[in-house]
Amino acid sequence: MPSPTFPAIRDQARFWDWHWQHWEERNVLSEWCLRRYDTIFEVVASLGLQRPRMLDLGCGGGWFTARLAQLGEVTGLDLSEAAIAMARSRFPTVTFISGDLYKSVLPTERFDLVLSQEVIDHVPDQTAFVDRVASFLKPGGYLILSCANKFVMDRLEPGQFPTQPPQHIQQYLSIRGLRRLLRSHFRLIRHTSIIPLGHRGILRLVNSRRLNSLLVRMIPHRTLDALKERAGLGYTLILVARRHG
To answer: Model's pTM, two decimal places?
Structure first.
C-alpha cells in the first residue's frame, strides 16, 4: 500500500487559520469540547504538581491555556497565527507562541507537563510528534494527551460529522496504537474515554436506544455512560503518560 500524501505545512497552517477565523461557525467551544476541558483540568489537578511549568500544544484560541495558568507557568503553542493572535488579545498575561512544533525554539527538558488536545491525529508524522513532545519534558515529566478514538470513529454513521477539506489531516488512533507510539519515551499511567458515541458494529448494540432505555431503569444514565467510557467506548480518548527518566 502506498504511503499517504500529506499537505505541506503552509497549507495546514492556512487551513487552521481559516478554522480559527471561523471558530464560532465551526462550533469550537462545543459541549463536547467543554466536557473535555473539564475532564483534563481535573486530571492535571490530580497529579499534585506544585506550580508546574506547562506547555499547551495546539492551544488554539487559548481558553484552556488561560485556565491552566491558575495552576502554574504555562506557554501555549499553535501552528495558526490567527489562533495565537486571538489568544493574545483575549489573555494578554499568558505566553503564546505561533509556529511549527518541529521548528520551535522552545528549550528542551524544561517542562513538567505537556498537554496536547486533538493534535496527534492531525499531524502527518505521529512518531516525530511524540519524539518532539518528549524532548520538551523533563525526565519524569508528564504528558496528558487527548485524541479522537479510532474504534469509535470507524463506527460512526456516514455523514455524522461534516466532511473536512484535504488540509485537515485525519489519522485516528486506538489505545493500542497510542501505546505503541508512546512506549519509546513514555510509560502509560492511565487512560479513559469520554462521550459514548457510534451506532455501527458492536456499538449498534452498546448504544442502542431500546437497550439503553431498559438499562437506565436499573442503572442511572450517568453511571451507564461512565461504564462505557471506562471501557474505552467514548469518542475522545484521554491518557496520562510519564516520560522515562
So the answer is: 0.94
